[in-house]
Amino acid sequence: MTFTLRALLGASAAVCLATAALAETTTITVATVNNGDMIRMQGLMDDFYAKHPDIKVEWVTLEENELRQRVTTDIATKGGQFDVLTIGTYEVPIWGKQGWLVSLNDLPADYDADDLLPAIRGGLTVDGNLYASPFYGESSMVMYRTDLMEKAGLKMPEAPTWADIKAAAAGMTDKDAGIYGICLRGKAGWGENMAFLTAMSNSFGAKWFDMDWKPQFDGQPWKDTLTFYLDLMTNYGPPGASNNGFNENLALFQQGKCGMWIDATVAASFVTGKDSTVADKVGFALAPDNGLGKRGNWLWAWSLAIPAGTQKADAAKTFVNWATNKDYLALVASKEGWANVPPGTRSSLYANPEYAKIPFAKMTIDSINTADPTKPTVDPVPYVGVQFVAIPEFQGIGTAVGQQFSAVLAGTTSLEDGLAAAQDLTTREMTKAGYLK
Amino acid sequence: MARAVSARRSLLTGILAWTIGLVIFFPILWIVVLSFKSEGDAIAAPLAMLRAPWTFEAYAEVQERSDYFKHFWNSVVISVGSTLIGLLIAIPAAWAMAFVPGRRTKDLLMWMLSTKMMPAAGVLVPMYLIFRDFGLLDTLAGLVGVLTLINLPIIVWMLYTYFKEIPGEILEACRMDGADLKREILYILAPMAVPGIASTLLLNVILAWNEAFWTLRLTASDAAPLTAFIASYSSPEGLFYAKLSAASVMAIAPILILGWFSQKQLVRGLTFGAVK
């Protein structure tokens, strides 16, 4: 009888404890993009659960543009659907200023904010508050075929000029063999052709706006940028380039059809990966310049931020700290190797001799270090952002201008008409938004 | 001679029909082929891709990464639920419009249809706020409700067209025999309109299954249907074609099978009343 009573009491206590434990579990919803590093993190969640059994993570993975619309609607209406958001360097300055994000200045000491790369940290900080923690960062650089360069009797400088790029493109082009000297983005969109062209225009001395927010497409620097781009693409680019974005150019490069490709540093792991037919023949160089002190490379970081409306800020901060801490980089290295560690966020990663052995590690960090989102152009500008302008109106304006320039590349609009249309539409939208009187 | 011309014409018509059919079906066939290739082969040139070995790799990875059955079940609940509720509302509405029309019935029908012409994005924020305030975000009940309302004009219009083909005298006769409204609709009208109701049901299940604007914007994880499942495999930067294709095949397969088995019913219902 006593034994039965004790057993019953013990069982009841166990049930109570289990119920209490269950009751204390906090579930957070993380909205994220579909890229390799984010998917890899989802596979490493056992480590997080072992350290934080009281937090459960639900994932919402969406395509980048879909995610942007989805989380923008939610955060603007305080919908409270997400506790952690994956956002980029474009959103953070705007949303931080709006008061839509929780400051991450109070993350634990082991987070080591001083270890973050200064360029990336600068792009995620508003008025001294870190509003997002970088998960992976990227710039852009030149990826080229070493065998084709050798065949053409050329050598790619580590820091080429646009003249070097043109000479290399001319030397490597062999249209009869289906090899095009250069592949660049042509597909319309603020994150597609305009990411490349805006970064390129910085090196030509162009800018989107002057200090009075007046659009600058009617100036000579933009004309020079587009003339050079069209010359490259028309003479040495693949056919149908106005439809090519990252994935299309990646496919062309991996199939050995591009001599050169200037795009995101994250592409380096793809072109040297197992699916590439040219993996052992790829060299890297900094994005080109024109001797004006700015290179044509961009800066982007997918980062984890916490919306101000969340009821679970503490659990969300615990997760953000785990996912973007130095320990996470070590965890990925131990499970998947150094080549799979999310790049471009922390100085300590690039000081690690093991990581330095990765062929594109040095070029990635050098590219990131040459981009400054707070001083992106040759002349001073009133905006933040290297390949974008961090104002809410930019998505719409950038895509509309991108459509004009894509049409110029496709040959359906002349260069002059394209620039004039870009100037008109940007002026109209900026006036409507109140930047211009 | 006439028979030869007619045979030649039917052969040409057959070839033309098959060509159009294959052109329309080609993107689906291409997705199916891509889904059985590795990521590296999926981005190769078409001929090299076709020659590459076939593999279930993409399906295995999708199955490992996502909870397909949860998304599938959500799609079933949302599409079937919204269609059934829509039918419950639309059958009496279409009955009234077809058999006891008022002076403004035609205007009312046109107004109902005009709501379909409004861009969905135009009402996104108010809808989102309503859902937020009523606690309907990321719930199946919320999505069933919104898809019922979205597809209701089409259901009413389709049923109205079918009901108009049924002679009103039959209903009058049953009323003379003492049938009340419930009996009239349930035992006389509904059985006669079964082909029309069935095709309306099938078509609206397909429409609701494929709806991607609201199902993506009003869900997060709990109520996310197969549209969200597909969207999680798309990316502007990366190699995801094979996995995206595999996810697409898994998402469209159930509705493709349903459409295949019910095609006779669908065609019969859609052409019902076309020839008088």
Summarize the structure.
With 437 residues, chain A is α+β, with helices and mostly antiparallel strands.
Question: Could you explain how this protein is built, in words?
Answer:
The complex is a heterodimer of chains A (437) and B (276). In chain A, 46% of the residues lie in helices and 12% in strands. Chain A has 437 residues and is of the alpha+beta class. Chain A has 2 domains: 194 residues, 3-Layer(aba) Sandwich (D-Maltodextrin-Binding Protein, domain 2); 210 residues, D-Maltodextrin-Binding Protein, domain 2. In chain A, strands 1, 2, 3, 6, 7, 8 and 9 form a 7-stranded mixed beta sheet that branches. A two-stranded antiparallel ribbon of chain A has the order 4-5. In chain A, strand 4 and strand 5 form a beta hairpin. In chain A, helix 18 runs antiparallel to helix 19. The longest helix of chain A has 23 residues. Chain A starts with a helix and ends in a 5-residue tail after the last helix. The relative contact order of chain A is 0.17. The mean pLDDT of chain A is 92. By secondary structure, chain B is an all-alpha fold. Chain B folds into 2 domains: 57 residues, no CATH class; 167 residues, MetI-like fold. The longest helix of chain B has 34 residues. Chain B is globular and about 70 Å long. At the A-B interface, strand 1, helix 2, strand 2, helix 4 and helix 11 of A face helix 7 of B.
Write the layout of secondary structure elements.
The complex is a heterodimer of chains A (437) and B (276).
Chain A: H1 2-24, E1 26-33, H2 36-43, H3 45-51, E2 55-62, H4 64-76, E3 84-87, H5 91-98, H6 118-123, E4 125-126, E5 129-130, E6 133-145, H7 146-151, H8 162-172, H9 193-203, H10 220-236, H11 246-254, E7 260-264, H12 267-271, E8 282-286, E9 299-305, H13 313-324, H14 326-336, H15 347-351, H16 353-356, H17 361-370, H18 394-410, H19 415-432
Parallel strand pairs in A: 1-2, 1-3
Antiparallel strand pairs in A: 3-9, 4-5, 6-7, 6-8, 6-9
Helix pairs in contact in A: 18-19
Chain B: H1 2-35, H2 39-42, H3 46-51, H4 57-65, H5 68-99, H6 105-114, H7 124-133, H8 140-164, H9 168-176, H10 181-192, H11 194-210, H12 213-217, H13 226-231, H14 241-261, H15 263-271
Helix pairs in contact in B: 1-14, 4-14, 5-8, 5-11, 8-11, 9-10, 11-15
